Amino acid sequence: MLQLGRLSSAAALIAVVTSSAGFAAAQPAGAPPAPGPVGAPVEPAAVPPAPPEQPPAPPPPAPFAPAQQPAPPPPPMAPPPMFWQPTYAPAPAAPPAEAQRPGIGKAGIPTSQRGGLRLELSAVGDGDDDVSGGSMLIAPSIPLAERTFLDVRLPLGFATGFVLGNPSVNLRHVVRANRSVFVTLGGGLGLPLLDDDTQDRRFFEVPNVARGLYDFHEFYPFSVPLRFGAGVEAHVGELLILRLNGDLTAMFNYGDNDEPEVAFQHAGEIQLGHTFGGGLRVQGVALPTFESTGVRSSFEGDLYQLAIEPYFAYEGELLFARVGLLLPVDEALGPPFSQSFAFRLATGFRID
User: Fold this and answer.
1) Res 221: pLDDT
2) What backbone phi and psi angles, to 5 degrees, belong to 242?
3) How far is it, in rounded angstroms, from Cα 121 to Cα 281?
4) Per DSSP, what are the bridge partners of residue 157?
5) Hey, how many other C-beta atoms are within 10 angstroms of the C-beta on 174?
């Protein structure tokens, strides 16, 4: 009985082992292992190996870039100047050109101050409306340098005949104070051509009357005139022009007139318009030493002469013209139309 019991126990153990092996073979791949018999040790599940590490992806190709050119070599170093060699700083850059304003020429000065040739004619009329004579002026103006001019004045008078006055040579320079104000400075020396042969008063008085005694020294005999002058011209806005002029003339006399004389003349103009314009001129001539002169003259004792002149003007790029009516205001030449008046014409061309 004891052996039979041992055989039964052995057969039962073999049956359990056989059934466990069959069950394990029946499990699918990857399934967790079936639990063993109670009390059997549990083995840890096998961990599958990690996949191999992949290398990083290469960066995307860069866009095409041209090959950089090598920098040019630096210029050779010049040796420093020796003590006898001057050093020159670079010239400053020129300012930008500004737009040309009306009434201003290409040289940057008023068109009335440009060079050229000027012809003037003044014809005198008396209270009976008769023309009794007058004066002419030929005045070339030659540019010498920037805004500097050589002005030559050749005065001619006519009454019963023609007479050459005292010509003069003058220098004139225009200073640009700003873009609309201009200052003129100058002076000149006259040649004494009026003498005994032209002592007849008609030869030098009538031309002076035609000008209202302005530029008196050009028709005054026995004198060497020396003149200094200054002027200002201002352009206000787009149409208005203002002008002021003043001249001081010393007349160093000789011959029959040994007394030096002095004349101070001044004028102011207001003009509206540039190419075509019109305005009014007011002029005065002071003769402080003419209370008594060494030359017989109708102007002796007349220490101041005032006159006005309304005028019209045309100022082109090349040609110009101006017409006016000179009206003496006070004695000895005025009042207007009762004593004298003068028709005035000026024309010519401009150059820079």
Assistant:
1) 84
2) -120, 135
3) 17
4) 135, 163
5) 21
DSSP letter string, 36-88:
-STTPPPPPPPPPPPPPPPPPPPPPPPPP-PPPPPPPPPPPPPPPPPTTS---
Which tokens in the block code for residue 305?
């002469």
Q: Vertex 317, ends 233 and 311: CA angle to 5°?
A: 55
Tell me if 263 sits within 8 A of 217, measured CB to CB: yes
The separation between the first and the last C-alpha atoms of the chain, rounded to the nearest angstrom, is 157
CA separation for the pair 165, 206 (Å, rounded) = 12
Largest CA distance in the chain: 196
Strand partners, 286: 264, 304
User: What is the reported pTM?
Assistant: 0.68
Q: Which two tokens stand for residue 227?
A: 């003149």
Instruction: State the pLDDT at residue 338.
Output: 76
**What is the Cα–Cα distance from 52 to 60, expressed in whole angstroms?**
24
Give me the percent of the chain exceeding a pLDDT of 90: 42
Q: Which tokens go with 16?
A: 């359990």
The rounded distance, in Å, linking the Cα atoms of 103 and 106 is 10
Residue with the larger pLDDT of the pair 140 and 14: 140
Phi, psi of 205 (to 5 degrees): -85, -45
Is beta strand 340-351 parallel, antiparallel or unpaired with respect to 319-328? antiparallel
CB within 8 Å of 62: residues ≥ 6 apart? none
- Own/partner contacts of 118-121, CB < 8 Å, gap of 24 or more, are 118/346, 118/347, 118/348, 119/346, 119/347, 119/348, 120/344, 120/345, 120/346, 121/344, 121/345, 121/346
Q: What CA–CA distance (Å, rounded) separates 277 from 289?
A: 38
Check: CB of residue 333 under 8 Å from CB of residue 298. Answer: no
Torsion of CA 226, 157, 310, 175, to 10 degrees: -30
Residue 23 is predicted with a pLDDT of 47
